């Protein structure tokens, strides 16, 4: 079973008051793009971790049997707490899981599926674009306990540094894996 943890708990501080997840791209809120792309891939479960403005974000999530919504009440402490909230809610059948960022709406189902095809090759599968590491990262369930020890707002970067021998860097010819939408300029560059 392949699970996906979608981090959607952040405060959008670089947006100067707007919640980036609610901003529209082609008339659709950013968070919906991220969710729809993940659900259209061959994942079996999607855990969406909410925090900041959780009720507003929740309104953009359609009901779906694959979706489980969890609330991280520690979201102000940084990304690590959201990752852990997602991991705690993984199915007991999960063999591997993605950590996905809610503000990367252009990653399509083919990218998720390409990573899933390599799930048995290494414990950590990282998409790269022109040798630059991107997202989402696919982790074997064997990495669960180590990831549960991360702290602060660093994501899984420390895990990657310590486990270079367990990583498969998979070249993906698509810059969406390195393109987040953190600032108004990111949205402006679309039009």
Explain what you see.
This protein has 191 residues and is an alpha/beta fold. 26% of the residues lie in helices and 24% in strands. It contains seven helices and ten strands. The strands form two sheets. Strands 1, 4, 5, 6, 7, 8, 9 and 10 form an eight-stranded mixed beta sheet that branches. A two-stranded antiparallel ribbon has the order 2-3. Helix 2 links the parallel strand 4 and strand 5. The chain is globular, with a radius of gyration of 15 Å. The model has no long low-confidence stretch (mean pLDDT 89).
Query: What fraction strand?
Result: 15-25%
Number of helices: 7
Structural class given helices, strands, pairing? alpha/beta
The beta-strand count equals: 10
Unreliable parts = none
Helical residues, percent: 25-40%
Mean pLDDT: 89
- The CA-CA distance between the termini, in Å, is 38 Å
H/E element order: EEEHEHEHEHEEEHHEH
| Biggest sheet overview | 8 strands, mixed
Shape: globular
Rg, rounded, reads 15 Å
Concise synopsis of the structure shown:
By secondary structure, the protein is of the alpha/beta class.
Secondary-structure blueprint:
Layout: E1 2-8, E2 24-25, E3 28-29, H1 30-39, E4 45-50, H2 54-58, E5 67-71, H3 79-88, E6 96-101, H4 109-117, E7 124-129, E8 132-133, E9 137-140, H5 144-147, H6 157-162, E10 167-171, H7 184-188
Parallel strand pairs: 1-4, 1-6, 4-5, 7-10
Antiparallel strand pairs: 2-3, 6-9, 7-8, 7-9
Kindly list the characteristics that best describe this protein.
about 190 residues; alpha/beta; 8-stranded mixed beta sheet; two-stranded antiparallel sheet; 7 helices; 10 strands; about 25% strand
């Amino acid at each position: 079973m392949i699970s996906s943890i979608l981090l959607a708990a952040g405060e959008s501080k670089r947006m100067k008051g707007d919640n980036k997840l609610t901003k529209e791209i082609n008339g659709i809120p950013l968070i919906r793009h991220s969710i729809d792309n993940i659900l259209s891939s061959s994942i079996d479960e999607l855990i969406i971790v909410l925090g900041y403005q959780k009720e507003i974000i929740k309104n953009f999530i359609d009901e779906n049997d694959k979706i489980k919504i969890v609330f991280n009440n520690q979201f102000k402490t940084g990304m690590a707490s959201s990752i852990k909230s997602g991991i705690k809610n993984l199915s007991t059948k999960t063999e591997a899981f993605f950590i996905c960022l809610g503000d990367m709406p252009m990653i399509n189902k083919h990218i998720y599926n390409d990573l899933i095809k390599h799930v048995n090759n290494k414990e950590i599968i990282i998409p790269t674009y022109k040798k630059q590491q991107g997202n989402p990262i696919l982790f074997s369930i064997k990495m669960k306990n180590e990831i549960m020890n991360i702290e602060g707002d660093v994501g899984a970067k420390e895990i990657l540094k310590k486990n270079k021998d367990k990583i498969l860097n998979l070249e993906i010819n698509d810059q969406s894996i390195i393109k987040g939408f953190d600032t108004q300029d990111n949205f402006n560059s679309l039009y």
